[in-house]
Design goal:
- With 819 residues, the protein is mainly β.
- α6 crosses α7.
- The chain starts with a helix and ends in an 18-residue tail after the last helix.
Length: 819
């Protein structure tokens, strides 16, 4: 049956092809492009808390088509694998593990692991053990690597459930044991849908406003509800390092759990009925409790109702208690937020949130911890006996974020403003604090001498990103630059190995050198290379890179990165150009103009974007900025089309003026909101010869309660929704457009129907268009065959419509399905 469905999907795809592209089945691009898919990138790294061990996991970047074709259930906003009670489309999957000792550079290849996917690595706080999940066809089990014995072993026979919790286990802060989320129904007979029990699906509104975005993969029937309860039900289990697990409490639909810093209590969130067919599980009713380690209930913190009526707005929240967390600097004290504005930031109140706290033994009434003027964002707790913490708040209307230094003993008194900026303002970004483990084993801010915090950041500036390490003095509210990257390298701090910021682990790269780990000693002024990852794209070593700055007609400064093919020089004249972009929204012109790249970063080619086509002699203008700025009291989208076209024109003009681009041979491409951009530019300008739009949305009336950064619903801004929808202006598109979309796209707003309807409109209007629907693929594409085919489709399209003096290559059939 699956094979038939796949063949059917491919035949349908072929049926919409123009004659010159007619094909049956998957294709592969030219060898230089195909090699990019299989390039081996540097492994993912996990540094132990003591800075002594670097765990290097080889990434599994691509899947087989058979992997994606495996059975999956779509329930409550989740795609799950019913065979092993895990999420079916997880990122960060690994295939092997190597441990590297930071001081000596010696390596240990971890052997004896079963066939399967490794995921969710986590070091114990004492750095003696590295835990990870080994996911196999019918189970997902917990494994640990012992630093002392240099051996890995399966810790328990307990099969884990990650349907609701993406990481199905957590270490006790004292490193003595693990609390895991066990799959209680694994191995039991699967539920079947009895046709005699089928009934009408009825929903009824109460008359109360309940705006919701266009979520996908929701519950649709009573049988879906039964399936959701069956696969989501789990049992918390205490697993000591001996491996003899003991159940904690009763099974439930556990969506969150965390252990108190003193390793004596568990904060648990459990989903309650009734469920909803309109919103995902994260907004279902829930009960929050504090349990002892044996599972008995010490306190019930909240009974949250179904949150299907949250007011419209990105900073709107559910009413009542929410955002529960442990204080990392205390043994057992829980903190939560409560909205004071009915959950709606548009309501004018002195404080939009209050924070409350409750200490063990959780018998007394909660105390007011702090008042928050805007919407509560987060708290970063310090290691200085409760003397220092960073409290963050934000607001969407002006994109503002504020961070205060507070004294947790009296959080509303003597606050110091640490940072205030638009969260889009990269130049004012103070960086991210360095963390460490406190005496309890919890993650806290590294506070040295009771007064100094350390911050690492990208260091965005007029000259591009210049990463840094700063020391912040809490007592004087001043910052001192400890170190920053120097050209021609792009180097950033990965960790501190001391309290003074003199010995650092960094990641260092250049335009031509693959990122690698180094130990930098500022006192001795030495730099020692720790890893030697090889260049993943040797065929592209001759690519040249240039960061270009230019202006839009309204004075907004823009930038983009120009890549030229190996061996190109100016005497060869202008080249065909492929632009790849993504619009972003801002409230400030100056912020929109900021540089957010480094001219010294390594040149990644990658299969995802435009870079492989350098091999065909095409110049690439990557990420030319397309800012949409709200000015004079207007929302950004009120000016979307005008500013989008102006940004594109400025990008075209600068390339033509430099003599790089042939103005009659420029293509525009993008993914998701970038695809939406492509269709709009083809409809409202004549700047481009052709366009490639992947996984896009084209009719905004199909996302009536907002999209991207648009908070107004369709009925509040019908003219904006219509003006921005290229579907409404399809008759103006006079350039050929290639559309590609995953048939299983779950992304809010980019239903596959969006591309199908746009193609039907273009075909009906007599426009040149091609639609490629990829079986089993989601918003991003994962299967090797799909990726090769996408590269082939784009290559053929560019050959025909951009490189007009070249003929498209003949289709090359892919035999078998080994990848």
């Amino acid at each position: 049956m699956k094979a038939f469905k796949l063949l059917f999907a491919l035949v349908i795809g072929a049926a919409v092809c123009t004659p010159s592209f007619a094909n049956q089945g998957y294709q592969t691009p030219s060898p230089a492009l195909a090699a990019v898919v299989d390039a081996k990138l540097a492994p993912s790294s996990y540094l132990s808390n003591d800075g002594q061990w670097l765990a290097l996991f080889d990434r599994k970047r691509i899947d087989t088509l058979q992997d994606l074709a495996k059975e999956e259930l779509k329930l409550a906003g989740i795609k799950l694998n019913p065979a092993n009670f895990s999420r079916s489309r997880v990122r960060n999957k690994f295939t092997s593990l190597v441990l590297k000792h930071v001081e000596t550079g010696s390596e240990i290849v971890v052997s004896g692991l079963p066939n399967g996917i490794l995921r969710s690595p986590s070091w114990s706080s004492d750095s003696q053990y590295l835990a990870f999940v080994v996911e196999q066809a019918s189970s997902a089990n917990l494994w640990v690597y012992n630093v002392s014995t240099k051996q890995a072993r399966q810790l328990s026979d307990t099969s884990l459930n990650s349907v609701l919790t993406s990481t199905p286990y957590t270490w006790l802060p004292d490193s003595s044991a693990i609390v895991a989320n066990a799959a209680v129904n694994i191995g039991k007979a699967r539920l079947t849908n009895d046709s005699t029990q089928v009934m009408p699906v009825i929903q009824q509104s109460s008359g109360e406003k309940a705006p919701a975005r266009t979520y996908q993969n929701l519950l649709t029937s009573p049988f879906d509800e039964a399936l959701f309860k069956f696969y989501a039900q789990s049992q918390l289990t205490y697993i000591p390092l001996s491996g003899q697990g003991q159940p904690i409490g009763q099974p439930g639909l556990i969506k969150a759990f965390s252990v108190s810093p003193d390793s004596t209590n568990i904060l648990v969130g459990m989903i309650d009925e009734p469920f909803s067919y309109q919103v995902p599980f994260s907004r279902f009713a829930a009960t929050w409790q504090i349990w002892g380690m044996r599972g008995y209930t010490l306190a019930e913190l909240a009974k949250q109702p179904l949150a299907d009526n949250i007011p419209q707005g990105y900073d709107s929240v559910r009413t009542g208690r929410r955002d529960f967390q442990w204080r990392a600097d205390q043994g057992a004290e829980v903190i939560w937020a409560e909205a004071q504005d009915g959950g709606d930031m548009k309501n004018d109140v002195p404080y939009h949130d209050h924070l409350y706290s409750l200490k063990a033994p959780f018998k007394r009434d909660a105390k007011l911890f702090a008042k928050v003027e805007r919407r509560f964002d987060s708290i970063a707790w310090g290691n200085g006996n409760g003397n220092v913490a960073l409290l963050s708040e934000w607001r969407f209307s002006d994109r503002q974020k504020r961070v205060f230094v507070i004294q947790p003993r009296n959080a509303d008194k003597n606050r110091v403003l640490f940072s205030e900026r638009s969260y889009n303002d990269a130049y004012k970004d103070p960086g991210y604090p360095i963390y460490e483990k406190n005496d309890l084993g919890a993650d806290v801010l590294k506070v040295v001498g009771g007064r100094y915090l350390f911050l690492r950041g990208n260091g965005a500036s007029e000259q591009g990103n210049i990463p840094f390490l700063d020391r912040y003095d809490v007592k004087t509210n001043t910052t001192t630059r400890v170190w920053q990257s120097e050209a021609p390298y792009y180097e950033r701090v990965r960790a501190m190995l001391d309290d003074e910021g003199e010995r650092l682990i960094t990641i260092r790269e250049s335009k031509t050198e693959q990122p690698n780990f180094f130990i930098r000693d500022l006192d001795d002024k030495t730099l020692t290379q720790l890893t030697t990852f090889e260049h993943p794209y040797p065929e592209f070593k001759g690519v040249t890179k240039e960061l270009i700055r230019y202006k839009r007609d309204d004075g907004v400064e823009l930038s983009g990165t120009l890549y030229l093919p190996p061996g190109y020089d100016a005497t060869q004249g202008p080249l065909p150009v492929l632009m790849w972009a993504y619009p972003l929204e801002y409230k400030d012109k100056a912020v929109a103009s900021q540089m957010r790249e480094s001219p010294y970063e390594f040149t990644y080619i990658g299969y995802w974007g435009p870079m492989p086509y350098l091999a065909k002699g095409i110049a690439v203008f990557d990420d030319p900025k397309m800012p949409i700025v709200g000015v004079d009291g207007k929302e950004p989208n009120d000016l979307f089309r005008k500013q989008l076209v102006a940004s594109a024109k400025a990008a075209v003009d600068v390339l033509v003026e430099k003599g790089v681009a042939d103005k009659d041979k420029i293509a525009i491409a993008g993914h998701s909101y970038g695809a939406f951009m492509v269709a709009n530019l083809l409809a409202h300008s004549d700047l481009f010869k052709t366009g490639i739009a992947r996984s896009g949305a084209y009719n905004r009336t199909l996302t009536p309660f907002g999209f991207q950064g648009e908070e107004r619903d369709f009925w509040q801004a019908q003219d904006v929704y219509a003006a921005m929808s290229p579907f409404f202006h399809a008759e103006k598109i006079n350039e050929p457009m290639l559309m590609i979309h995953g048939q299983e796209d779950p992304n809010s707003g980019t239903f596959p129907m969006q591309s199908e309807r746009m193609y039907a409109a273009l075909k009906g209007l007599g426009k040149e268009a091609r639609l490629v629907m990829l079986p089993y693929e989601a918003h991003g594409y994962r299967a090797r065959k799909s990726l090769l085919h996408v590269l082939w489709e784009q290559e053929q399209w560019l050959d025909k419509y951009l490189l007009s003096d070249e003929k498209p290559e003949e289709p090359v059939a892919v035999e078998g399905d080994t990848q």
